[in-house]
User: What shape does this take?
Amino acid sequence: MSYVEKNTYFGRIGASYRYHYMEKSLPEPERSKFKELPFTADLFLKDNQSPEAQNNIRRALEAKSLHARIVVDVCSDARSAAEPLFDTMGPQVASLNSVAGSAPIERTAYVLNHEGVGQIFVLSHFDSQALTPDESPEGCGGRTVKKHLSHGSVSEEERDLPIMKYVDSNVISSDVFLQPWERAKLIAKYAPDKHILVGTVDHRTGLIIPMGYVWAGGKGAYTSVPLHDIRDTKLMYPDGYPQSLKLEEIPEIFRPALIDNQNKVKRKLKEDPTFREKMGTQRPCFVVVRDSIIGARLRYPNLMGGMNKAFSIFAPYHKERNINGGVYITRTQEDLETVLSQLQYPIIEGLKAKPGEAFDQTSVVVFESNLFYLAKELADAAMDEEWFKAWYRQKKDGKPRDIFVGVVRSGRTTAMYNYEELLKQ
Ligand SMILES: [Zn+2]
Assistant: This one.
């Protein structure tokens, strides 16, 4: 069965192309100009100053001032990357990435509840080419780990890994819908005035399947199957594919972004017939740890634009005012640990990856922050970990490995350093 036939949502929504957008769709950035070069700190600065990046940043800041930001809370997986899910609305996205979309919500409340935010998307992701009727679709490593943990099929030794402990205590459910749904209900407590769409991304195509929403101000919630049936996988996934809401069941406010997403999927699949195949395995070149809510894909479009290019982890910080009214920014030990345990996921996978396997292409880790010392602190903390050092030492065996430390303010990279050179200074 072809994708379009299988995905009824796509068919149903055909009539909705009457929605027009002021901006014409932008072409995918050309990546080849950087292809042959080794990764240097200058390359990031150059990309951040490119017309594409400057345009993205301008539009991101504009969206904030127009209260039109779309916060997307989604997995760190390079294939569910939030910004490239959209055709022309990508720069409006403020992305919060964490393993299986699970990071502590209270720590990102300042992003979710910001007045510049117009709507929130809470998404899981799955693989549409590995469906089993009556079962929740798989495809997210974090959800799979959760499933194994709850079935007790994880060895004692593995259970002690920080990433396992992280998943155990932060991922709510291994179910493709229940994970974002339960999370959306929690988000509604921290951001009561925001409309929240709940869905999942088919990471083979980038299509968002809307499955429910939570209306602002506690004015109700709605799901694609009756609320009391959302734990019945036979009703939720009769042919293995998640039950989608019809467009007419979805509040107006979410529709432009959903249609923009469909436009992107259509264009992508037409332009690149091998796209689905390329999304089978997660093989990003970059891992980015950042506190800028303007995602790295918008800020480095030539290096990281598009799907399956970067695994991203959002690292929240504490902002406090001192008695003189100055702003004081710190990162707590707990936040640091939350980030490091998630970083373990791509690094451990990369460490053991054979050619063609997940994270075999991962060669660059970028630690960024608003302030230099916070970015350096992240890199130092990672370098204190044996598993991270082991991955980095593979450089001696001829594998490309580079670590960068950058300062990013309002989307603009003001400084970038190669970590090794930084230590020599
Ligand atoms: Zn995932």
